[in-house]
Amino acid sequence: MITAANPLIDSKDFDDYEQHLQNYLQGNLDPHRFVAIRLNLGIYAQRQDGMCMVRAKLPGGRMNPRQLLGFAEAAEKHSGTTNVHITTRQDIQFHFVPLERTPQLQRTLAEYGIATREAGGNTVRNITGCALSGACPAEHVDINAYIDKVANYFIRHPLTASMPRKFKLSFSACESDCANGLVHDLGVIATRKDGRPGFRLLAAGGLGGKPKEAIVLESFIEENQLIPAIEAVLSVHDKYSDRKRKMRSRIKFLLDRFGAEGFIEKYRAEYARTSNAYSPAAVPVGVWRERSVDGSQVKTDLRAPTAQHQEDLNILPVSVPDGRLEIETLRGLADLLVKEGLHDIRTTADQNLSIFNVPTDRLGSLTVALKALGLKLPRCGDLVVSCPGTATCPLGITASRQMAPRLSGGVGDLSVRVNGCQNGCANATISDIGLYGKGRRHHGRLVPSYTLQLGGNGSEGGSIGLTGPDIPAVRVPSAVSLLHDSYHADRQVNESFRDWAHREGREYFDELLGHLSNVGAMELPFLTRDHGDSSVFKVESMGVGECAGSQAAPADKLLLDARYESDLSVAFAAKNKQADAGESLENQITYSGQALLEIAGLDRSLKGEDQLLPALRSAYGVYKDELDKLEQFYVELRSFQSTLDELQLASLITAAKEFTAWAGTRVEEHNKRPHTAEQPRSGTDG
Q: What are the residues whose beta carbons fall under 8 Å from the beta carbon of 26, sequence distance 6 or more?
């Protein structure tokens, strides 16, 4: 049952997951299939055997006080720690959750309106928004209305349930692009053209080991065409991205394959179909406003109380060191907000919190009350963000969480972001000073080190940071201090750190930090241990990292494709587009039949009645009635395609749905067969 309080939640998910978990633990479910199932519910393996990280999905980072209590209760009852962790995608994560406790944790969260569905896996991940959305004087529209619309539209969508890799969306409320669309799979930026409301779209950006800046996909698209435009980009990703090589399967790699013009051409082809099927709303989703200032006149970094465009109301930022919130802090904060009549609190991409709609005359007393809970306003130099690194992540190489408290942004309040591996979880590539953890050999010994990234900015008009030298972990605090000292000594009037870094260039930083990056043989004993670890450093393989997701079985994916074509056929029929509906129906039957061939071990590339029907009769001869119905369906479909008689369409849609449902039953029976391969050592690997 989908809940009205949060349409992302469906209790059936928990019932199904609990059954899958029991089947897995009893050896009756393939481990790889189970990985895909739990990832789609935000459940990840940790480095520690049998322990999970569970991620909640908070579109735009928005919460209410009751949900703070839900996080506290779930952590207290089901987690092995006393805190939760804010992420750079505005999610909240639990760590050290025993696999067997994950169903109960999900149910506890659901009671408080907190979803985890598609917070992981190869799906549309949590949608991020600009930090001031709904309150910024420069915004065209409260972008949260569109975040909710898109999140709800694509949840459990057959197109997005098992894509080649994850897909990340950001929404910005004006051209300043505070949500960093430049480095997202798709960045949506509110704008106007000749007074008309709409969006600018940036596509195929990304972070990680091979960061890429997005291209302009649409300089302007009408407000009511946003959904089909997004669906078209998702279709390009689903159809063309590499499903075999995980390290090349993000949508950004399609720019290498097709080039910008070729990518846009693929998008246009898909958009022609998705827009043809979509029925837009008669009125805009959000309320568009006439703004009195533009983004360049507004400070959007939330480092101090910030006036909203609503009279006498303010946003109060709250610093959360390392993004960790203790159970007692969550409860105390919830009680305080209820007492103050405040109901809008959000996580930020800087792993902090922000409280909205605070009256000006309550700012001082609320700040004092927060201090009593151990919470303070941001302070100069504390804009330091890190991923968990080797504390919990299977991919972690260095102890990024131990490194972060040793660093400061200095008097310039520079942003510093620390990744424990080459992936981009802490967004180091778009920071003033970014750090990527790695192991680097010096004189035959492995030294925990960090690669510097300097002067990055993820907003449109920004750029990925310059790559600097590798610095041994022990020396990183000295390197960071030297960087901001040199910046303040050498910068020009009003020059930003980013502009200074790009003006100076790579060679300057190699020379500036050469004494810290170079390692002499006699120095090795002091450099071969990571922060917080007394043992000699080594890069430990902890199995396959799960941020790359797990692919659905081929038959399951074919059935998802069949469901998507079924949805399209209904949409086309509603708009009296019979030819398009007929094409979708034929595709639906093809995918359903190919799923049946896949589980029978036959050639799933067969298509059309001349190829598909004989193969299905050969493999499924005992189901004569169902296959006779399929043969009759093809006869009626050919008749419909020649006449486009709309009176035939309803019965064809029903018949196609029945065949897909029958195929789904056969696939489900196949998937339930006992798994005979050797079981993995725990429920969190495989």
A: none
Q: Nearest CA to 17 among 34, 30, 3?
A: 34
Rounded to whole angstroms, how far apart are CA atoms 259 and 264?
Answer: 9
Give 31-59 as a 3 state SS string: HHHHHHHHHCCCEEECCCCCEEEEEEECH
Separation CA 243–CA 238 (nearest Å): 9
- Listed in sequence order, the residues at least 6 apart from 470 whose beta carbon sits closer than 8 Å to its beta carbon are 438, 440, 449, 450, 451, 452, 517
Q: What angle do CA 302, 109, 35 make, to 5 degrees?
A: 100
CA 394 to chain centre: 18
Global pTM reads 0.93
φ/ψ of 620, rounded to 5, equals -130, 40
* Crossing angle of the two packed helices 31-39 and 11-25, in degrees rounded to 10: 160
The 43-45 sheet, strands edge to edge? 43-45, 51-56, 92-98, 83-86, 324-326
Residue 357, Ramachandran bin (φ over 0: left; ψ between -120 and 50: alpha; else beta): left
Residue position matching structure tokens 């303040």: 488
* DSSP H helices in 63-218: 65-78, 102-111, 144-154
What secondary structure letter does DSSP report for 167? B
pLDDT at 545 over 70: no
Place 548 in a pLDDT band, splitting at 50, 70 and 90.
low
Spacing of C-alpha 94 from chain mean position? 16
Confirm if 345 and 63 have CB atoms less than 8 A apart: yes
pLDDT of 683 > 60? The answer is no
What whole-number distance in Å separates Cα of residue 121 and Cα of residue 13?
Answer: 15
Residue 136: closest CA among 179, 103, 98: 179
- State yes or no: pLDDT of 542 exceeds 60: no
Give the per-residue SS3 of 178-202.
CCCHHHCCEEEEEEEECCEEEEEEE
* CA gap 148, 242 in Å, rounded: 29
